[in-house]
Amino acid sequence: MAPEGSGSEAATGQAPFHPAARALPRPELLYRQALAGYGTDANGLVCGYRFMPGQPGVPLGSEEALPWLQRPAGEAGEGFVWLHFNLSHAKALPWLRAHAGLPESWFEALHALGSRSTRIERDGHNLLAVLNDVTFDFSFDPNDVATLWVHLGPRLVVSARRQPLRAVDRLRADVNRGEPVASTVALLEQLLGDQADELQRIHRAAADRVDEIEDELLAHRGPRHAGELARLRRLTVRLQRLLAPEPTALLRLLSAPPRWMSAEERELLRHAGEDFAVVLRDVLALQERIKLLQDETATHVAEQNNRSLFTLTMVTVLALPINLAAGLMGMNVGGIPLAGHGHGFWIMVALITAFTAVLALMVVRRLRRAR
């Protein structure tokens, strides 16, 4: 992951310039450098690239992408363009509606309410993908999951998010290093692969923490981690629910793909789904392990409560003779025995002590038999 200030999406939101961009006019370079510190350009574009067959991606601005977007479908030529937008920018959605030629279903998906499960489905002749990923500043909080919306065609990929996401940042880092991307489907497959890798990293870190909690639990120091176990379980459940691609949607897509999608590209998506299935099985196994630790923790807490209740009961039983004697002697009525005797107090103390000793002896014998 790129560090702060080195071109990561969380730091600047703008891709570092590829050497191929030096051919651009100097005013355009100065304009783009001036915008780099603000995260997006004037239209909310975080980063844009044009990919030609076998070549690394060349950075594009939103104004540079307009000629490509305005070409008729049959005249787009080779290669494709990827545009990544920040929806928190006020001008992003108006620009997309005016120039990107996206279907209304894509904009409806942006405003869908409720839980957005990850899905990839066919939308006419193109693809609509709703992907969930952890935010760039993810801190193992179940709420640190945000959504990425992707529209994908044979010559154009448009992605949009409201918060910086780790998988997108890794993909941008790969593109900035000069790695070529063969097609739009290959770009989506690489994004899914980065997402699966990030999920695997989260699973590994959570599993390491669960190992530590398990060791402390076996050493009888675990009940204090009950809250942390509950948080980790909520995290794994939320990640499984949101990041797992809907199998029915992916199956429908692979059984009836758009005409422009080749057999190799369908195989890429199938492999991406299988990679996710492997990681999600690991996450599910971790959930079961956390559940067992929670049960073990609850058992330890119940044992401690039982010990505390037993101790309280024993104190109450052993104090019964003195409480009974104090209640009887404190009624202040006539006929109280030993009231006029000179050693009456000590006689009562001796009787109470004897009764308490007999009672304690009976309790000890019952405990020994129970053991």
TrEMBL record:
Gene3D superfamilies given in the database record: CorA soluble domain-like (3.30.460.20), Magnesium transport protein CorA, transmembrane region (1.20.58.340)
UniProt keyword Transmembrane present: yes
Subcellular location, record wording: Cell membrane
Listed CDD domains: ZntB_u1 (cd12834)
Keyword Aminoacyl-tRNA synthetase part of the UniProt annotation: no
Membrane topology: Multi-pass membrane protein
Pfam families: CorA
GO cellular component: plasma membrane
TM spans (from-to): 309-331, 343-364
Keyword terms, alphabetized: Cell inner membrane, Cell membrane, Ion transport, Membrane, Transmembrane, Transmembrane helix, Transport, Zinc
InterPro entries xrefs: CorA_cytoplasmic_dom, CorA_TM1_TM2, MgTranspt_CorA/ZnTranspt_ZntB
UniProt record similarity statement: Belongs to the CorA metal ion transporter (MIT) (TC 1.A.35) family.
Name of the protein this chain belongs to: Transporter
Organism: Azohydromonas caseinilytica
